[in-house]
Design brief:
239 residues, alpha/beta, Ribosomal Protein L25, Chain P, Alpha/beta knot, 5-stranded mixed sheet
């Protein structure tokens, strides 16, 4: 039995009928080639789901009968990824893999020794938009009812404040002796995972202020060890 495809919408329909149009409707009609009688799922990216059946196919839209709708409870604990900025498209790859692995939010981290720079202005806004688009598309592909929120970039000082405010914060590091599955994790609140600058988590990759972030996480509280080295973008899901 084929799994019903999921499409993201700004808001779920409130009535018994609906029209799926715009980019999602065009994709459903011309790429997925859905036909009358087939089912699909609408999601608002905030836990709301509506199951529907196609009643008619138009050029770039579908007409639907809504058969069921419900809202899922937010995940607990909420997993946040503090991801140091990287050059090229590896940042989008990191966000894609993390979304597929189940993170609930991403904090782009302007670490002092990041190769990439998201300066204020159009260039930085464009880079942030790419991360947000990647998270949305990856969530749709993974059929996730919750789209991870990609926040505004944070400085090292701001990240240190976030680390101090959460029940548990962990640095993902290749020398760790424990994985996430073996650790005592919170049952609610936020679990913050920190991935450092490119070049790994070597001491030389971390400035004194960044090392203070590591200290607040508890440098003994690391995960991702006991496995062969993985590519840098994969660090956050290899745990």
């Amino acid at each position: 039995m084929t799994t019903a495809p999921l499409f993201l919408v700004d808001a779920l329909p409130t009535g018994d009928t609906a029209v799926l149009d715009g980019p999602e409707g065009r994709h459903a009609a011309t790429v997925k080639r859905l036909r009358a009688g087939e089912g699909l799922v609408l999601a608002d990216g905030r836990g709301g789901l509506a199951h529907a059946v196609v009643t008619a196919v138009e050029k770039d839209a579908l007409r639907l009968d809504v058969v069921d709708r419900h809202t899922l409870t937010p995940p607990a604990p909420r997993v946040l990824l503090a991801q140091a900025l990287v050059k090229g498209d590896r940042g989008e790859l990191a966000v894609e893999l993390a979304t597929e692995a189940g993170v609930d939010g991403v904090l782009p981290w302007r670490a002092a020794r990041c190769v990439a720079r998201w300066e204020a202005g159009p260039r930085g806004e464009k880079a942030l938009a790419r991360w947000r688009t990647t998270a949305r598309e990856a969530a749709k592909q993974a059929r996730r009812p919750w789209v991870p929120v990609v926040e505004e970039p944070v400085t090292t000082a701001a990240l240190a404040q976030r680390v101090a405010a959460v029940p548990v914060a962990l640095v993902l590091h290749e020398s760790a002796t424990d994985g996430l599955a073996s650790m005592d994790l919170p049952t609610d609140g936020d679990l913050l995972l920190v991935v450092g600058p490119e070049g790994g988590s070597r001491t030389t990759s971390w400035t004194p202020s960044s090392r203070r972030v590591r200290g607040r996480c508890g440098w003994g509280r690391r995960c991702c060890g006991r496995r062969p080295p993985v590519r840098w973008p994969s660090a956050r899901w290899a745990c």
